[in-house]
Amino acid sequence: MRSRHQQAGFRQPLFQALVVIALAAASYAWSITFLPTRAQIERRLAPPEAMLVQALVNISENRIATALENIDSILAVEPNFRLAQLIRGDLLLARARPIQTVGAAPGASLDHLADFRDEALARLARSSFQPTEDLAPRHFLQPPADSRYALAIDTSKSTLFVFENRQGTLHYVADYYISIGRNGIAKQREGDRKTPVGVYHVTSRMPQERLTDFYGSGAFPINYPNEWDRRQRRDGYGIWLHGTPRDTYSRAPRASDGCVVLSNEDLVALSQYLDLGSTPVLISESMSWAKPQEVAAQRQELLAHVDRWRKDWESLNTETYLKHYSRSFSAGHTNFAEWSAHKRQVNAAKSWIKVGVDELSMMLYPGEENLAVVTFKQDYASSNLSNTMKKRQYWIRENDNRWRIVYEGAA
């Protein structure tokens, strides 16, 4: 008696090869121990991605005809979805002869098979993650009050998450598959083809008509290198969120020159959540999730330091005020000794100071366990000067377990 595989015209080696793709995700970044259900897949994935993941699940369950229907449905909508094209070619070829690996169909590019495998793994892994409204990245101690949304990019999971800021608490809204730099993360130099890790902001919008087809439906530059990058002597420029060429639906998880790349459809959807100049973009290798109450103590601790800094500045006790600054402090070309001398001179000429801090945000810096970015609107008034500015400080927890300012400047 022929097996079900033979009856379906399906050869076992391909079945095993594609099941390897589906089940290898058990050791992927999210430690998947089960394949997602249809309800889980459809709950949050866009239709093309949902159908692709469902096809992989169907393959793992030996429902080959159904898998082929899934793939055909994808290609009817997104004919340039290359991973779907590859899987379709394998499914068709397996009817005629045994094949030993994914991508055995004529015309498959051997150079990119590893990329296709990685994309399949990433998309399958994404489907198993079910975010809830009460969880957000632990890095957001206090999200920016002047931005309705915040973005968090988890590079190990090839995913960009969108959160809505509701009175200081972040709530999950959506997420999208992304590609990052060919050489991974932690950008250091121009041309290293790496995606930076850090806290950034969307600075502007580049419309499609001003760009080549390479960038697809548009681009949103971010402020790399930021103040901390420059302090660490990182260089390069032109890190954008952007789309894909018209002949490409999506790219492999590592396929850009350092930018964060989405499908054109997803980039258009994402654009509704972006406030130019204010939306934070947190890029991390691996996101740690927490409920608001789980970060409350750390938020209050840092907030108390900021408030003490403000009050000590108002007190005109310059030596106490300067204790809030790290000995490794620098701002531009100014070091701690020069900063201290300048502050002593300035404060000596004043009879009173009032400092207001409003619209404050606090974010832990990815990859730097003891570093936080604090941004706020500062209303400064004194006996001889008044001004309002948006200020950014980097606070570092030093060896004595106390937070101190290591950088300060205009945001």
Compact description:
By secondary structure, the chain is α+β, with helices and mostly antiparallel strands.
Explain this structure to me?
The chain is of the alpha+beta class and 411 residues long. The strands form 6 sheets. Strands 2-17-18-19-20 form a 5-stranded antiparallel sheet. The protein has a 5-stranded mixed sheet with strand order 5-4-3-13-7. Strands 8-9-10-12 form a 4-stranded mixed sheet, covered by helices on one side. The chain has helices at 4-7, 12-24, 38-44, 47-60, 64-77, 82-93, 113-128, 227-231, 264-271, 296-314, 318-322, 336-348, and strands at 136-137, 140-142, 149-154, 159-166, 169-177, 180-181, 198-201, 206-207, 218-221, 240-242, 254-256, 260-261, 280-284, 289-290, 330-331, 334-335, 353-364, 371-382, 386-397, 403-410. A hairpin with a 2-residue loop joins β4 and β5. Mean pLDDT is 87; it is low at 1-15 and 22-33.
